[in-house]
Amino acid sequence: MPLRHGQKFYCQLLLDQHRYMLVDEMAKQQGKRTTSLLREMVYSALEKALPLSEYRAAEAADNAGWADSVKRRVQGRQRSKQDGSDTAQDS
Q1: Does 59 lie in the same domain as 38?
Q2: What would the pLDDT profile of 38-59 be if each residue is shown by its tens digit?
Q3: Quick check: is 90 in a domain?
Q4: 8 with 26, same domain?
Q5: Helices 52-90 + 34-49 axis angle, to 10
Q6: What average pLDDT does this structure show over 67-91?
Q7: In the prediction, which pLDDT does 32 show?
Q8: What is the pLDDT of residues 4-31, one digit of tens each?
Q9: 34 and 77: one domain?
Q10: Domain span at residue 24?
Q11: Domain check: are 43 and 27 in the same one?
């Protein structure tokens, strides 16, 4: 069962040594982390395997979730700054 990590799911992937080394080398050549390249490969395979409308709908929902997460983070920081300035004024 995958674990939740914010808006994403964390899942363990076991690869055989030599094929992992191929991906690792590709990632280094592209200046990317191996996990990032693997994620891009999975997304690319999904896009090819599914009807485009289905993939695009999932992609749009993921992007909307990310935008909402960023918005809430910014709002939280703004509240934190306001609370900090309110505390400083009370002193």
Answers
A1: no
A2: 999 999 999 999 999 999 999 9
A3: no
A4: yes
A5: 140
A6: 80
A7: 98
A8: 888 888 889 999 999 999 999 999 999 9
A9: no
A10: 1-49
A11: yes
